[in-house]
Amino acid sequence: MHTVAKSYFEAFAVDDPARRETAGVWRFDRLSGKSKIIGVNDSEVVNDIYTVYDENGTPDAGIETILCKIEGAFGDARRALLDRGTLVHKEIPLTKEQWTGIATFIAAQLLRTPRFFQMMRDYLTAGRLPCECDSPQRVMLTLIDRWIPRLVRMHGLLVYTETDLPLLTSDNPAVTWKKNGNGFICGVNQRDPELVISCPLAPELLYVAYQTQESLNAVHAERYDIPRAERKSEMFRSNLTLGSIPEREVKRLNHLCLLNAHEHVYANYCDKALLRLLQSRFWGHKALYEKA
User: Can you tell me the distance from the alpha carbon of 104 to that of 58, in angstroms, rounded to the nearest whole number?
Assistant: First the structure.
């Protein structure tokens, strides 16, 4: 889909003899309630939402080249993490470049969604600022760069599940939220001290990051009017550790995935329990953020 990279789908693929040797992903549709298995290479592609235009009004596909590079770096890092021995040895087999690739991918997923594009249009319109048809796309690229240092300053966890219950994902896989008792609130502002960011990387692997004083300071101290070359350099230590979550947390995060989905939820399985969950929380209902 337009908000999910092909390499991301590969981690959620299942073998289906009906598709010969092509790996498939279960896709569940919000409005119709229908589900089907689709090949990773057969996934729908919508490129037009990323189109930007040069000064002559000619479409420029350069932005898609940038996004493809983000996808490739993430794919290499994710494959290194899917070794179950990682959790046993309490070691994170990531180079600095691979960790940066994961942070960049998640930053992009927070911003390259229909929700963000509409929010940016509303913001520019409310402020009576110029809003060209490709303004959200251009803002997206700028904010991806700004989100990366925020993410690496947060307390990051690479979390493996302690259960056979798989994690779900969606066409908006990265979520900003905070805990609310036993539940959660979606769409939390980046300046919220209780901000949490999570993104399933595979059915058994999750990235989750919690706000720290360093990351909060980084947001408040950003000076957008100062060129990057003139900003004062800062040294800091990345905080990335390993962990695990029990079944009750997997269920809660799957509910969070449903709330944040735009049109589709994806999984590497389909059973009666999942269908009941989708029917009660997803099918036939508009996305949480859509206008009535």
Answer: 28
Separation of alpha carbons 211 and 109, rounded Å: 18
Is 66 inside a domain boundary?
A: yes
Total domain count, the chain? 1
- Domain assignment present for residue 290? The answer is no
Q: Looking at the domain assignment, is residue 110 inside a domain?
A: yes
Confidence of residue 89 (pLDDT cuts 50, 70, 90): low
Residue 77: count of CB within 10 angstroms of its CB: 21
- Sheet containing strand 169-170, strands side by side: 35-39, 24-29, 264-267, 169-170
Give yes or no for a contact between 38 and 267, defined as CB atoms under 8 angstroms apart.
Answer: no
169 pLDDT above the threshold of 70:
yes
Q: For residue 193, which amino acid is it?
A: P
Q: Which domain holds residue 82?
A: 6-281
What mean pLDDT comes out for the span 27-37? 89
Strand order in the sheet with 175-180: 183-186, 175-180, 196-202, 205-210, 155-161, 239-245
Q: Locate 71 and state its tokens.
A: 């996808």
Residue 287 domain flag? no
Residue 17 DSSP class: G
